[in-house]
Automatic annotation (TrEMBL):
Residues 59-62 are annotated as: G3. Pfam families: KH_2 (PF07650), MMR_HSR1 (PF01926). This is GTPase Era. The gene is era. PANTHER family: GTPASE ERA (PTHR42698), GTPASE ERA, MITOCHONDRIAL (PTHR42698:SF1). It comes from Ruegeria sediminis.
Amino acid sequence: MTTRAGFVALIGEPNAGKSTLLNRMVGAKVSIVTHKVQTTRARIRGVAMEGDAQLVFVDTPGLFKPRRRLDRAMVAAAWGGASDADVIVLLVEAHRGITEGVERILDGLAEIGLGRKVALAINKIDRVQSEALLGLAKDLNDRYGFAETFMISAERGYGVEDLRRWLAGQLPEGPWLYPEDQIADLPMRMIAAEMTREKLTLRLHQELPYQLTVETEKWDERKDGSARVDQVIYVVRDGHKGIVLGKRGETIKAVSQAARAELEEFLGRKVHLFLQVKVRPNWLEEAERYSEMGLDFKDGNA
């Protein structure tokens, strides 16, 4: 049996649907998916099998114009993930078309794409008419020499199998990189922290989520088969602590219940989740926090 294995980088603007596509490809929730932009920080890898091929997906942070250190580190991680991949998939939202951000990504691809196959995936196709889709596909292919173009809906699954089959055929021959039943190479502690951060992001409808981070401080396996998980939510100022806790602790309680339920479903066993909120004014400037998120602190330098 000839096996194939390699890395596939999903790139695009924030909210283009990269995390949704990754979860659909892998068949499990391994990356944070919310309606808010810039929620994916670490380069989360999901592993999918397609016939005799193993596809290792690098879910990169959305590419956008960086303003802060964290932004710059996220953008550097995104391009780093693309540069290291065997195949790149650019996701473009059908209804938004060629935005200024997409233009910037096309320029970046022109610099790193040489010698690499790049596929175009036009996502959320259910939002526009077919004539507009064909026009957008032509315009994008006129600007960059994509190896293949796919029309998909990551949310509904349309066109995703065709894309996965094509990707499998592009990977180099070689042994699989992970055990067949493994779906992600992230430590469970980080996946758990991402789940809690997703629930916070969904619950809090202000700028705050981008100024907080979640870390799994302790993970204790219990004799009864359950796990005790202790997490810390770091915020940058006292006022934010109150927002995360909520009136009479209602917000933190709701977040804890939702995160625990998802973690239990993911692990298939009981979880005791304990959350604390701590004020850490300079966490955005601490190298340790960046390494926890899988980012390079030095990449954030202006």
